[in-house]
Amino acid sequence: MQVTVYSSQPYDRRFLDAVRSANFAATDIEWRFQTAALDAGTVALAQGSDAVCVFVNDVLDAAVLEALSEIGVRGVVLRCAGFNNVDIDAAQRLGLFVARVPAYSPEAVAEHAMTLVMTLNRKTHRAYNRVREGNFALDGLLGTTLHGKTAGVVGTGRIGLAMARLLHGFGCRVLGHDPAPSPAFAQWGEAVALDELLAQADLVSLHCPLSEATHHLIDAAALTRMKPGAVLVNTSRGALVDTQAVIAALKSRHLGALAIDVYEQESELFFHDHSAEIIDDDVFARLTSFPNVLMTGHQGFFTEEALTEIAQVTCENLVCFAEGRNCANALAQRGISG
After folding, report:
1. Domain range for 259
2. Is residue 337 pLDDT above 50, yes or no?
3. Catalytic site residue 133?
4. Is residue 210 very low, low, confident or very high in pLDDT (cuts 50, 70, 90)?
5. Known catalytic membership, residue 237
6. Which residues contact 311 (CB under 8 A, 6 or more apart)?
7. Reported confidence tier of residue 263, pLDDT bands at 50, 70, 90
């Protein structure tokens, strides 16, 4: 089975090869790694493949799926949980198999979110650079004690629960909001309406999928409802946040700080080295000009454990596809949506 892996990085090759060799040696999975992202212009790279393996910023709209189907591709496996970039209706219409990795090491993402919170709050990134230059002055490094603060977790799935556990461990009062609240959240915090969470939380951390309902969930109106000086953290999907509205809230000093591992226009930037280039993105440049903004390049998932699990489930999904078996992780399979 030929599988074209789009948007592949060296670590994708390492973990996919390792898991295939260790656990799927008897299968006929053959990777065809491509560094290019999947879009209408790169569909031809999958010529001769039975399936494609894609990531968060690959484009799988109706036109791309139709083009893949025309060249004989019958399966799409995502090495991620989110599938907002896939036209599921079109996939079903075309009879394509689509499966994802619904959950992988939720602690990895939650721990990264917590790292962003602590780094931004205690300004350890700035202190690191100062000390290396022999500057041991503390002015400008003042933080706050997280213990006793109110933290809001938006989205109480597996990652949100992991974040709630961490925040509870730091001594925070934890509020949570989810249209389908997890009963397990009651162990760590109190479920409330979104408006109440925004009004009370000193820290708001987003852990929900991107959909039509959550697109720009944090917009100008939501930011206005947030507690003055609150910190916003987003390690889920960039478009959960209206970036222009966040910039305005930072400029007005209403939003105290911002920590993000995702960005609305990240597909043109993330996962590649642009250090020798001029980045032609004025919104990104404005964000990085704020001293109270901390940004990382979508690395929340980037742990050995998470990458191993992603590779394992991806291979399992491909075996299900090849054998025509029902797949628990399928989003589209024999006309059944998941």
Report:
1. 106-295
2. no
3. no
4. very high
5. yes
6. 15, 16, 18, 19, 20, 79
7. very high
